[in-house]
Specification:
4-stranded mixed sheet; 27% strand; 11 helices; alpha/beta; single chain; UDP-N-acetylmuramoyl-L-alanine:D-glutamate ligase; 9-stranded mixed sheet; kinase; 325 residues; metal ion binding
């Protein structure tokens, strides 16, 4: 096996984010006034790559952008935060993906995604771009999400698995059950509690006991996988099989009551920050407990600023609020 680069490769989406600040969500057929409008750069793949870069870890982005204003801004944005762009493709005549976000005062939101170049993959393709495949093989970790076609993720995850590259899949994105073909190549799968239903192919997980039971069944069926569960205000958990038993480790979320100088602004991208931060800790060789704690801190700081990309904290921000990491 070739010597790997101490690096995380991120294959995924990049989009222009358009935020509409509203008092409430509109009803069907209703026209609603927005009391503010903001633009930012987002997309789950890009958010995670920028998180890795801002936290000081080497990262290479594998993505498709349009040769439009958003695409050009993105190339500068990546470079500003030390995200490698040599594997970013600029597609002529195509628009970069877009996300339209209705953002409420309490920080919650609803999102509509237009795939654009994130969807411009030939469904007849039988293998991944050779330069992308090499970048994956040569990296220690591959980060995936579900805002690009599933067949692309399957190809990438298979290459990574065969090369001994750790594969972390953030389940956010496509609202469809995960394919068994993709699951077999994943090392760590990271849903939130809603997305967990896409993983286990079962709805109606209402209690802690429901979640614990179904995650246990999923891991015993797929013993190679670790489930990294994002739980919002309840923190995060990781489940995995060890010596024939399911091990469950949880860490609580951080509270604004303990940080009165901070406030909730926007939850967009918090899960991406968390997953990117966890990947950084895996690259650094940290244990799961310290990785969960650090990732909770990064996700917490992300929601104190507006917009996914600009809100992503640097390691210095984490250390300023929580001390040396």
């Amino acid at each position: 096996m070739e010597t790997k680069i101490h690096r995380i490769a991120v294959l995924g989406s990049a989009s222009g984010d358009y935020f509409f600040l509203v008092e409430r969500m509109p009803q069907v057929g209703e026209t609603l006034d927005a009391h503010g409008f903001e633009k930012a750069l987002g997309g789950k793949g890009a958010n995670q790559a920028v998180t890795v870069g801002k936290l000081g870890a080497p990262v290479e982005m594998l993505a498709q952008l349009g040769q439009d204003d958003t695409g050009r801004k993105y190339m500068d944005f990546f470079r500003d935060y030390n995200v490698g762009t040599s594997h970013v493709k600029l597609l002529e005549g195509k628009d970069t993906g877009q996300a339209y976000i209705l953002s409420l005062k309490d920080g919650n939101n609803s999102i509509i995604i237009v795939g654009g170049t994130n969807s411009e993959y030939d469904p007849k393709m039988t293998e991944l771009d050779p330069t992308w495949a090499d970048a994956i093989r040569n990296s220690k970790i591959l980060l995936l999400q579900r805002e690009i076609p599933e067949f692309v993720n399957i190809m990438a995850a298979k290459i990574a698995k065969e090369a001994g590259t750790m594969v972390i899949l953030d389940v956010g994105g496509r609202d469809e059950p995960l394919s068994k073909e993709l699951i077999q190549y994943i090392d760590i799968i990271s849903p939130n509690e809603t997305e967990l239903e896409r993983v286990i192919h079962k709805k109606g997980l209402e209690t802690e006991e429901d979640i614990q039971r179904e995650v246990d069944i999923f891991i015993r069926t797929n013993p190679h996988i670790k489930v990294l569960l994002k739980r919002g205000e309840h923190g995060s958990s990781i489940f995995y099989l060890q010596a024939g038993q399911i091990t469950h480790l949880s860490k609580p979320a951080y509270s604004f009551a303990d940080h009165p100088d901070l406030r909730l602004v926007d939850t967009t991208g918090a899960g991406d920050c968390f997953t990117g931060a966890f990947a950084v800790k895996m690259l650094e060789g940290s244990d799961y407990e310290s990785a969960l704690e650090f990732s909770n801190k990064v996700g917490f700081l992300c929601i104190t600023k507006f917009g996914a990309g600009p809100a992503i904290p640097e390691r210095a921000d984490v250390e300023r609020v929580f001390g040396k990491q």
